[in-house]
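INTERNAL AUDIT FORM
Audit reference: QA-55
Scope: verify that the stored structure record matches its stored sequence.
Auditor: D.O.
Record contents follow.
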Amino acid sequence: MISRQLENHWDEFLSALEGIEWTTQPNQVAKLSQDYFHFSPVLQPLLGEKRADVVVFPLNEAQVLRVVKACVAYKIPVTVRGAGTGNYGQCVPLEGGVVLDLKNMKTILEIKPGWVRAEPGAKLAQINKLASEIGWELRLLPSTYRTATLGGFIAGGSGGIGSILYGWLGDRGNFLAAKVVTLEEEPQVLELRGDEVQQVNHAYGTNGIIIELEMPLAPSYPWAEGIIVFSEFMAAARFGQQLGESDGLIAKLISIHAWPIPSYFTALQPYLLDEHHAVLVIFDQNAMEPLEDLVNEFEGKITFLSCRANKVLNLGEFTWNHTTLHARATDPNLTYLQSRFPSDPKLELVQRFYEHYGEEVMIHLEIVRYQGQVSPCGLQVVRFTTEERLQEIMGDLQNHGIAIFNPHTYILEDGGSRTINPLQVNFKRKVDPYGLLNPGKMRGWWEMGEEGGGVNPYL
């Protein structure tokens, strides 16, 4: 195992880290070697015992370069960590070594209308707070926005709150520039701009250590939160689709939950009705009356509006993958899927699978903009029985033209596009020639590299 190199050169390695914070305290190392992969009963046995040998907390670029140089010298694996809010084991070290925790590199370096530059450990909530003071905000946020970091979101995320307006992090223009440290004998700091950023976007930190980012900001509206309930699920789904297609109604979140998912939202129970389906929205409060008209058109009932109740419920924290978090808090045997339905205003496939699977696969939809079209993404809550049944359900969805983003694998390509990205693999060859960055996560590295054979050499 590569991490034995650390054991063989422990004293020399620590000497190279003089003045840099690090820990080998077992409980802390265990905590910082994990994320929320336990959402998946498939990943739990694969990743549950994986641990780093040491966690290092650099303060700045110079300290990152020192850590990297020592790791390259002794061929020690490096797994970069943000806040650990991911769900696929992105920051879990498969091969021990160093977890490089960037939480202390959290400075928001510059912010102005339309643009922000920050270190990777900067909290998304803090960036938004400063941006709001000048009338702007981040375009996209995960449901973990209060704790997630900017670098972690770029390396492990893909979309979220705001995707109905701005699409995905991978869409051109949603990620402007990055500074990246290479893992070479003499580490370099590279600046990537424009399309070059796609080399490290959603790459799980497998091909470069991001130490600075530039992101676009969006104008901030006077947002209001709303909860709308429906007696019929397809009325709720079609309302959400219509709201997303209504260009004059500005919304940055449209989240649809089939019963019994609303029953898992403990904090929202005063605003939910038994056996009713719920739509959670964040919208421009100036569009209150048109929104109410649309609700009436689909025979829904508004049970909460923040602009009338003078109360904020942080509804974003009940959507996207937070929905699964709330469901599992009630029933730990629940898990989830991630999918994208083809664009279809009639939502025929949504209706088909809602009726076919019932409460085995509970429908949770996020209305998003994908390649210019409004379409539903599914984060279905699943009553787990066996891995074979889970694979059968995913296969059924795929056979009907629904894209699956498998949340039950830690392999970069297998969870998303299902294809190797030569751009990212070739960049890794350039900046990480020894394959030390988050080894075992990029299938393209061992399939396109010297190892070949398509077998993960780290497991």
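Auditor finding: record pair retrieved intact. The domain at 223-404 is CATH 3.40.462.40 (Vanillyl-alcohol Oxidase; Chain A, domain 3).
Action required: none
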